[in-house]
Amino acid sequence: MKNMSMKIVVVLAVLAAGVSAAGASDLPDCPTDQNASWNNCIGTYTTSDGDKYVGEFKDGTFNGQGTFTLANGSKYVGEFKNDYYNGQGSWADSDGDKYVGDFNDAKRNGQGTYTLANGSKYVGEFKNDQFNGQGSWADSDGDKYVGAFKDGKRNGQGTATFANGNKYVGDFKDAKRNGQGTFTWPSGNKYVGEWRDDNMNGQGTFTWSDGSKYVGAYKNDKFNGQGTYTTPGGTIEEGIFKDSVYLGTVAEAERAEKTHSVP
CA 11 to CA 51: how far, in whole Å? Predict the structure, then answer.
């Protein structure tokens, strides 16, 4: 934001009666005298680099309703206070991204809607220009997320729905599945348990649509450690697994490990 006290070449012009971009304001036009105080009036402020503000002034600063247009084509329309975007407003980037909602000191703060040029959209809470709090994100490819955000990433409880029909409900950290969660597939398969870095890690239960079930330890999406696998026919494999391969009972696995360790 350009401060009125900056020593730059500016072009000051009184608004024509019909140029009320600041809304239906009852304020008078600002004086043409550049040395006069611009206070409680409507005027135009243009910098030497081509940025322009049209709207209300108070004590020589942008205050009230106004429009700020950058030389690159980006534009803000809404409320100002002390030269900054403050209150309700809309921002349109020259690249096509748009934001409509609350501002505080020129940053997105509060409730708002952010729409990207590619069609992706976020609706929810902002803090310091980032997604913070509860919100929803819809990718242009059809993926969706509804839940908690922190510092622009999915953090906390949330629900992710994918365009292919997959669904995850549970904990997120730094935009990845971390903690407890449930993942379901369109086929009817389901995993309930622990996650780390988007992978099944820790204790969990995987149930297949045909009735098969595994209950036990996971590492990087595979059965690793102690667990129990039950087939649809009722056959049970209980013991130690490695990379989803059954090694036998705990005793058998221990004997095999001792055998392999003999030089």
Answer: 11
- Of 60, 139, 61, whose CA–CA distance to 106 is shortest? 61
In CATH terms, the fold of domain 1-108 is: 2.20.110
Give the helix/strand (H/E) hosting 136.
Answer: strand 130-138
**Using an 8 Å Cβ cutoff, are 53 and 67 in contact?**
yes
Q: Where does residue 65 rank: exposed (0-12), middle (13-18), buried (19+ CB within 10 A)? A: buried
CA 219 to mean position of chain CA atoms: 29
Minimal CA–CA distance to 257: which of 236, 242, 244, 235?
Answer: 242
pTM of the complete model: 0.82
The answer to whether residues 61 and 68 touch, using CB atoms and an 8 Å cutoff, is: no
Asked if 112 contacts 99 with a C-beta cutoff of 8 angstroms, the reply is yes
Distance CA 113, CA 66 (A): 20
d(CA 224, CA 245): 8
What are the residues whose beta carbons fall under 8 Å from the beta carbon of 6, sequence distance 6 or more? none
Output the CA torsion sign for 187, 188, 191, 197.
positive
- Kindly report, residue by residue over 213-246, the tens digit of the pLDDT: 999 999 999 999 999 999 999 999 999 999 999 9
CA distances from 120 to 81, 125, 136, 255 (A): 30, 16, 11, 56
Place of tokens 């409320």: 79
Q: What is the pLDDT of residues 192-203, one digit of tens each?
A: 999 999 999 999
